[in-house]
Design brief:
The chain is α+β, with helices and mostly antiparallel strands and about 160 residues long. It contains 4 helices and 7 strands, in the order βααβββαβαββ. It has helices at about 20-30, 35-45, 90-105, 120-125; strands at about 10, 50-55, 60-65, 75-80, 110-115, 130, 150-155. It has a 7-stranded mixed beta sheet with strand order 1-2-3-4-5-7-6. A hairpin with a 5-residue loop joins β3 and β4 (about 75-80).
Length: about 160
């Protein structure tokens, strides 16, 4: 029997969400999750830069982004969806809202880094108009943590 899941609400993160956000980040990024203190500081410095998808019981997805002080460019610092919710368009939903907010704020360029072997993520970002730099950045996040840098011009 298939049980219905509660509807997901997209909203800004609250301080009380930080432990749950940390749990989800660890579930999504098993090898390179953010330490709790980094999520804490991202929340303190960029309170409007973390969106979550909440089903009323737990967080099912998140997006973290930060914009430079001159508002010219922004970085997507993390995008994650609970493993059992992947393939349902939740990452796209989060990214579309991030891009909408950045356009509204007058940001000109968005960048992100992605593991080159993460075909689903690279495909999602390409479908949203991001283009990769020609070369993979070796050891970008530390030894053997190569990343593809992708960019999107918002006009």
């Amino acid at each position: 029997m298939h049980t219905l899941r509660p509807a997901l609400k997209m909203r800004g993160v609250c301080e009380t969400d930080l432990h749950e956000l940390h749990r989800l980040d660890n579930q999504v990024f098993k090898v390179t999750p953010y330490p709790y203190y980094v999520l804490r500081q991202l929340f303190d410095v960029y309170p409007d830069g973390i969106l979550v998808l909440d089903d009323g019981m737990s967080l099912q997805g998140f997006a973290c982004f930060a914009t430079t002080a001159d508002r010219q460019s922004s970085w997507v610092l993390g995008l994650g969806v609970a493993p059992d919710r992947r393939g349902q368009g939740l990452g796209r939903r989060l990214m579309l809202e991030v891009l909408r907010r950045l356009r509204q704020a007058g940001v000109h360029e968005v960048r992100l880094s992605v593991e080159p072997a993460n075909v689903a993520a690279v495909s999602l970002y390409r479908s949203l108009g991001f283009t990769p730099e020609p070369e993979v950045r070796r050891d970008y996040l530390g030894p053997d943590e190569d990343r593809l840098i992708m960019r999107l011009s918002l006009g």
